[in-house]
Fold this protein.
Amino acid sequence: MLFSTITLASLVGLAASVDMSRYAADLGVESEFKDYLEELYVSAEDPSATTGFTNFFTIDGQLLVLGNTATGADEIQALKQELLPFSGEKHWNHFPNTTKVDSETSAQKTYQVLGVIETKFDGGNCSQAYYSTRFILTKDGSGSPQFITHAGNLVAYNDYIVDPPHTPTDIACGT
């Protein structure tokens, strides 16, 4: 019974963490990208997700966060764990909003997402930062972006702006 309660509480926490209510896609952003992004953020926000996060990336995919570059599954997992420890006392909540096409080639499509990330620490501290991220996805043989989650089609997840660039910040959650 205790295991069921803990599992249910964990699932409820995950379900409530990504908030897509402010998501707004510009022209050229396929409707499927919203679901892809939400699933990616659910995996990113789960401190225990290992391959459940890294399997989004191509074999030589990259996670870039403010100048820190991780290439390949092992480095990506290590950087994610450094930012969001397995211990679970730190929690992220993404609130994406403006989403647009940044660039496109015959092999890849790059999306730019602006939003807010809340960081909550067990014990009460909750602060937020503003982010700008580029997501580069591969395309299939017909030239369409690949939106199958956990399928090795994310070339790069690039948090090139996080402002302020530290946690906790001096901006309270919800402001």
About this structure: The helical segments are 2-17, 32-45, 51-54, 72-83. The first strand starts at residue 24 and ends at 25. Residues 1-16 have pLDDT under 50 and may be disordered. The beta strands are 24-25, 57-65, 68-71, 90-104, 108-121, 126-138, 154-163.
